[in-house]
Amino acid sequence: MNNKALVLFSGGQDSTTCLAWALDRYQYVETIGFSYGQRHAVELTCREQVIEQLRLQFPDWSARLGNDHMLDLSVLGQISDTALTQDKAIEFEQSGLPNTFVPGRNLLFFNFAAALAYRRGLEVLVGGMCETDYSGYPDCRDNTLKSLQVSLSLGLDRPMVIETPLMWIDKEKTWHMASTLGGPALVQLIEEYTHTCYLGDREHRHPWGYGCNQCPACDLRRKGYELYQSAHANH
C-alpha cells in the first residue's frame, strides 16, 4: 500500500484540490512547485499562502503535510515562446492548440518530481492534469501520463505511481470534490487564496476568486463555480 505522496503544487484551484485529496488519502505528503518564468508568477506567492492556510485550518491534514520544495526551471521559460512565458496575447496556433501551451512542461515537471520523490522515499506523484475541460494540452492527457508512469518506473528502477484525481471530471465537479473533502472551509480557502488567472490578476475579486475574468483559465473556473453554486442551491 502506497502511503507517501508528492503533490505537484502550483497554488491554483486544481493542484490545491489535489493536495487536499492526497492529504485525505495518504499518511504523509510533500509538495513541489516550479518557477519557470511564468507570467502568472503571483501563483508562487499564493502557493505559500495556501499551504499556510491549510496548516492553520485543517490540523489533521497539517500533521500529514511535510516539506515544500521549490525548483528553478527558468530554462523552460528560455526555450518557450508562449503566452504563459512571454508578454503576448492569448490566441490559437495553427496546430489548434492555444499559445498558452508550454511544450514539454508537464513532462519536465514529472521528471524532476520523480527524481525528488526517489530521493525522499515518496512513492506516488499527484498532479492536477485533466482531460475533461482543458485546452487540449497533449501533456495533460491520460495516455501521456500513463506512458510517463511506465518510463519513470523503468528509468528509476522503482515503481512510481502517477495519480491524477481530476482527469475525468470537469471544473464544477472539481469544486464539488473540494467541498466533499474539506467542506465550506476548503471551498472558501480556494476562492480566496488560490490563483488560476493566466495574466496574474490579483486585483479583481469575483465570487469564484481573483482574476482577469477574460483568459481561458478564468473562464473555466468561473463557469465551473457558477454550475457548482447552482447545483448546491438546488440541494
UniProtKB/TrEMBL annotation:
The family database entries (InterPro entries) matched by this protein are listed as: QueC, Rossmann-like_a/b/a_fold
Pathway stated in the Swiss-Prot or TrEMBL entry: Purine metabolism; 7-cyano-7-deazaguanine biosynthesis
SUPFAM superfamilies attached to this UniProt entry: Adenine nucleotide alpha hydrolases-like
Q: Which UniProt keywords apply?
A: ATP-binding, Ligase, Metal-binding, Nucleotide-binding, Queuosine biosynthesis, Zinc
Coiled-coil spans are: none
Family, similarity comment: Belongs to the QueC family.
Q: What is this protein identified as?
A: 7-cyano-7-deazaguanine synthase
Catalytic activity entry:
7-carboxy-7-carbaguanine + NH4(+) + 2 ATP = 7-cyano-7-carbaguanine + 2 AMP + 2 diphosphate + 2 H(+)
